[in-house]
Amino acid sequence: MCKPPQKKTIEIAYSEYSGIDHLPADLQQLLTLAYKETHNAYALYSKFQVGAALRLSDGAVIPGSNQENASYPAGLCAERVALFSAAGSHPGKTIEWLAVTAKNKTNSVVDPVFPCGFCLQVMVEMERKQNRPIQLIIGQPDTRVLVFDSSYQLLPFAFNADQL
Ligand code: THU
Predict the structure, then answer these.
(1) Which residue, among 89, 92, 163, has the nearest Cα to 121 in the 3D structure?
(2) Domains assigned to the chain
(3) Beta strands 135-139 and 95-103: pairing type?
């Protein structure tokens, strides 16, 4: 008889805030900037505007917004626009925080909009590279904001270079 599989569970740790006012002041600032960035999104096709803002350990803040294209897969998410911009313009600097928020046509997004799998894959590799966690602030300023102390909380079984 074969052994039954072992059922395992993992926990996802995060803090939940009911709106931006309850966040520490510096994180409020970063999420507010991410929200402003939604206006720079080029979301002609989805009409879904995502804004991101990340903060480096030296205090520099780098924005990002989703940039779409008529050839749909050529577009890029807000998170990766900000992450790659940071890597390209501030090489070697540690990313401490990344805030993400979004806006749709009817302004009716109330729940946090989570980074897609591609963006998480990029975040976890950047975490490994910098040997420091990237903390995430994900949510809608007026309703729900979740804070994670590492992108691994959202992609615990991440693929990594050791497996190549
Ligand atoms: N998008 C992001 O920018 N970030 C996410 O976390 C999810 C999705 C963008 C991609 C596309 O431009 C639009 O939202 C709809 O998928």
Answers:
(1) 163
(2) 16-156 (3.40.140.10)
(3) parallel
Q: Whose CA is nearest to atom 3 of ligand 1?
A: 77
Judge contact between 82 and 119, C-beta under 8 A: no
Distance CA 110, CA 49 (A): 14
Confidence tier at 1 by pLDDT (50, 70, 90): confident
| Top mutation candidate among 42, 50, 54, 103 for ligand 1, by most atoms within 8 Å of CB | 50
pLDDT value of position 158: 96
Contact between 79 and 94 (Cβ < 8 Å): no
pTM of the model as a whole: 0.96
By C-alpha distance, which of 89, 90, 148 is closest to 123? 148
Establish whether residue 46 lines the binding site of ligand 1, counting it when its CB lies within 6 angstroms of any ligand atom.
Answer: yes
Distance 133 CA to ligand 1 centre (A): 23
